[in-house]
Design brief:
By secondary structure, the protein is an alpha+beta fold. Among the domains are: 28-64 and 149-198, no CATH class; 250-312, no CATH class; 357-415, PGBD-like superfamily/PGBD (Muramoyl-pentapeptide Carboxypeptidase, domain 1, Orthogonal Bundle), CATH 1.10.101. It has 20 helices and eight strands. It has helices at residues 3-21, 27-41, 43-48, 53-60, 86-89, 92-95, 98-114, 116-126, 130-141, 152-162, 166-181, 205-211, 227-240, 272-277, 290-293, 314-320, 326-338, 357-369, 383-396, 406-415, and strands at residues 150-151, 191-192, 250-254, 269-271, 281-282, 296-300, 302-305, 309-312. Helix 7 (98-114) crosses helix 9 (130-141) and helix 16 (314-320) packs across helix 17 (326-338). It is globular and about 65 Å long.
């Protein structure tokens, strides 16, 4: 090799070494740096909310996003929705298992005695039955036995940065910092669901400040360790959303054979007495008072014309604001009842099959195209979807059962 070639070779080696050793920012590193800058930019909002500088610096130092969470919008990746919650993808028989209800009801009866004084105060102060708040606690965290797996602050920070509901979670992040700044709970103890709901009764940080109650009188609202505080806060949330004292959540009834299942929507409301005169019969010979019969109610048939039927009151929809699922409300309401009565639903759930969410969403698209459905395309067979299915079945000359089945899906596919 001559002198010129040798010199060129050495220069090439040196240049290659420089290329290899030059720090190149990966997309993840760049994204995390942007995340750090985003978090730092929130200090003025946190300060205005009453978060101390010490808390802000301590809790955000080294904070990293969790890109494995659902419901995020990440560059270069397909959009992810919320995970398929059991309330929306399981059939009622699988979600409201009698064995689970019986176990939780037995534990609830024990807790009724253990926390009698606090529960009496809750009933007196808020007008919410003790069994209802206990049932919420049982459904949310198995009376505190279920360990919520996520770091609340990391969850809400990630959702504020790349979530589908950034503005909402920006507020949740600020208020999560405020909870820590107020010294109510440690970061380690403030665990949550993937969506940032925390505590025995699963509150978002904003719900903590809207509805939190210090029932045990220790000067702070502690929904992570104080059962009286957590249950009173759940009761306060129900009251703030319109709970009516003395009103049942629902009445199980037997529907007449010619029932029009398309009436099972919240907008169709009639006094309970009118429903009874139309052929609906309270199960087990229940006698409803004149005041009960005067109460407005909506028809609920969770499995279409199959399985139990219910006349749902205002309080049913109040519980539904805690979790927007009919099966959740049925679970909580029935568990509440079972703490004082051992009787299961009078009509058993049918052996219905739940279609895949993608199939239900395909149905919703078809129902939207033909003008009988105007709600979300979410793959969930809720009240409005079931009623729209019934309307489609009527127009297509099919059996009207208001249930998303393979037969209805095939009929829709053939009609395209």
């Amino acid at each position: 090799m001559n002198r010129f070639l040798a010199l060129a070779f050495l220069r090439a080696l040196a240049f290659g070494f420089l290329l290899l050793s030059w720090p190149i920012a990966s997309p993840v590193r760049a994204a995390d740096a942007a995340f750090t800058q985003f978090i730092a930019s929130l200090w003025p909002e946190a300060q205005a909310a009453g978060v101390s500088r010490e808390t802000f610096d301590r809790e955000t130092r080294g904070l990293e996003p969790d890109y494995k969470l659902p419901d995020l919008i990440l560059p270069g990746r397909p959009k992810t929705g919320a995970p398929a919650q059991a309330e929306f993808v399981q059939v009622p028989a699988d979600y409201i298992k009698d064995a689970s209800i019986a176990r939780l009801a037995a534990e609830g009866q024990r807790l009724l005695q253990k926390y009698r004084a606090a529960l009496d105060e809750i009933e007196k102060r808020f007008g919410v039955p003790a069994t209802v708040v206990l049932a919420i606690w049982g459904r949310e965290t198995d009376y505190g036995r279920y360990a919520l797996p996520y770091d609340t602050l990391r969850v809400v920070a990630t959702q504020a940065y790349v979530g589908r509901r950034k503005d909402q979670y920006r507020t949740e992040f600020i208020l999560a910092l405020k909870i820590l700044s107020d010294g109510v709970v440690t970061r380690k103890a403030m665990t949550s669901s993937w969506a940032g709901a925390t505590g025995y009764t699963q509150f978002l940080p904003s719900e903590y400040y809207k509805h939190g109650v210090d029932l045990d009188g220790d000067g702070r609202v502690d929904i992570w360790h104080s059962v009286p505080d957590a249950l009173a806060s759940a009761a306060q949330q129900l009251v703030n959303k319109g709970w009516q004292p003395g009103l049942r959540w629902a009445y199980e009834v037997r529907a007449p054979g010619n029932v029009d299942c398309t009436l099972g929507v919240p907008e169709v409301t009639k006094p309970i007495g009118e429903w009874l005169r139309g052929g609906f019969v309270p199960v087990r010979g229940q006698k409803l008072s004149a005041s009960e019969q005067a109460q407005p109610a909506s028809l609920l048939q969770p499995e279409g014309v199959y399985g139990p039927a219910f006349l749902t009151t205002k309080n049913y929809f109040v519980i539904k604001e805690y979790n927007f699922s009919d099966l959740y409300v049925l679970f909580v309401g029935h568990l509440s009842d079972r703490m004082t009565s051992p009787l299961p639903f009078a009509t058993p759930w049918s052996a219905s099959k739940q279609l895949r969410s993608a199939d239900v969403e395909a149905m919703q698209r078809h129902l939207t195209r033909i003008g009988v459905y105007k709600d979300k395309l979410d793959g969930k067979a809720g009240m409005l979807t079931r009623a729209a299915l019934g309307a489609y079945q009527k127009s297509a000359g099919l059996k009207v059962d208001c249930w998303p089945s393979d037969a209805v899906l095939r009929a829709m596919s053939a009609a395209r």
